[in-house]
Amino acid sequence: MSSQPLLHPKLDPAAIRLPWLSREFLLRSSLVALFVLLTYRFPWRWLRFVTSAAVLRICASLGMATARVSFDAIRIQGQLFRVVIACTFVDVFMGSIPLLWDVRKSLLRNALRLLAVAVIFFGLNLVRLAIAQVLYFRGVPWTLTDEVLGGFAYFAVWLFVWRQRTWRLLREV
Amino acid sequence: MKPTPTHAALAFLVLGALLVSSPATPGQSCSFKPVLQGRVCTKPGAPCRPPTVGSGNVGKCTTEGLRPEALACECQGAPTPSYNITLSLLTPSYIDTDVATSTITVIAFNGFTGTVNFSCTVSGMSHPAPSCPNPAPATVTDGSATSLLKVSASASAAEGNYTVTINAVDGHGRPPDNGAQSSSVSVSHVRWILVGGGRIAFLTFVALLALWSVRLLWHNKRDAWR
């Protein structure tokens, strides 16, 4: 039995470079982690208050019995809910800044773009929170309504970031 | 009328009385009223002892006063080292059988250094109240120091609102300039729901991302074959 070489004899396996994540993407990803960690260093009391107020209003407009308990706590249909930082989507927004930043554009243009993104994310967050509340009070477990829906919301943000990206994911071979 | 020597003496006396009664006469910047526990300064800026305000053994004569007619000389020593304490809000503001924490920050003034000891008290209308061990002492070396305050509630803690008060004293037994500081915490044994993505949300996202990546790779491969 003759043994046939798998590669051409002149082809050096060490010279073959598999596609790998680009340096820019790795740098931006590191900044994402840093930005998210920094986000959790602040209490974001005002945003938690605003988010809980918005949820309160949406639920009230849907005919639910609502009451404010504290700046971050609300009572809906007799159940107490506490709005934590993750609920405000601020971590998602802060984490997406390094991925959305366009180095070819000015600081002002980037800032304006991020402001628009912040508004979009805030709206998306309110929609998912309202859906979560409605589903929860229709008998769906909270894990499904809040957490799984939250996972889908994160993924929606990723798709948005992917469409808006100005960087390459893979290193050029 | 020709002025007589008696008239001249009288005029001199009146002028002298006027000069003495006016606290802001030239060459005299301090009144004759001595400040309590001190001596009257004769010249502003001159060394004096013991200081009536501030600290140290030797002070500096300083003219003090809100009104020009109430000038008083004060022997002002070095500014007394002191400190303030601040208390961040207890987080979370509602506890069930868990712990709420807050950061106590000691802010030094006038070069204050040393250890500040804390004592914690919880007050409220309901009993038993949550417990609050005395926070660890903070040692100020470079302007500020922090310590962690913990308030914990057990299942037996009564529901209600509580005020947590922090008292502080330094090594000389001096309290902070801004006095005791308080924050509030509530105990509730009602089941809370935390709104916001947790571990399952993250796992859902990772699963969706993995599926999306596979789909993307498959599309790329298919395009490459074509």
Structure overview:
The complex is a heterodimer of chains A (173) and B (226). Chain A has 173 residues and is mainly alpha-helical. Chain A has one domain (21-164). Chain A has 6 helices and 3 strands. Chain A has a 3-stranded antiparallel beta sheet with strand order 1-2-3. In chain A, a hairpin with a 2-residue loop joins strand 1 and strand 2. The radius of gyration of chain A is 23 Å and the shape is elongated. With 226 residues, chain B is α+β, with helices and mostly antiparallel strands. Chain B has 2 domains: 5-78, no CATH class; 82-187, Immunoglobulin-like. Chain B has helices spanning 5-21, 199-225; strands at residues 47-48, 55-64, 72-78, 82-87, 94-95, 99-109, 114-124, 138-140, 144-152, 160-170, 181-187, 192-195. In chain B, the strands form 3 sheets. Chain B has a 5-stranded mixed beta sheet, with no helix packed on it. In chain B, strands 1-2-3 form a 3-stranded antiparallel beta sheet, with no helix packed on it. Chain B is elongated and about 125 Å long. The chains are: A mainly alpha (173), B alpha+beta (226). The A-B interface holds A 43, 45, 55, 69-73, 79-88, 129, 132, 142-143, 146-148, 150-155, 158-159 and B 89, 91-94, 186, 188, 190-205, 207-209, 212.
Summarize the structure.
Chain A has 173 residues and is mainly alpha-helical. Chain A is 59% helix and 8% strand.
Layout of strands and helices, then pairs:
The complex is a heterodimer of chains A (about 170) and B (about 230).
Chain A: H1 23-39, H2 45-61, E1 66-70, E2 73-76, E3 79-83, H3 85-88, H4 90-100, H5 107-136, H6 142-164
Antiparallel strand pairs in A: 1-2, 2-3
Helix pairs in contact in A: 1-4, 2-5, 4-5, 4-6, 5-6
Chain B: H1 5-21, E1 47-48, E2 55-64, E3 72-78, E4 82-87, E5 94-95, E6 99-109, E7 114-124, E8 138-140, E9 144-152, E10 160-170, E11 181-187, E12 192-195, H2 199-225
Parallel strand pairs in B: 5-11
Antiparallel strand pairs in B: 1-2, 2-3, 4-6, 6-9, 7-8, 7-10, 10-11
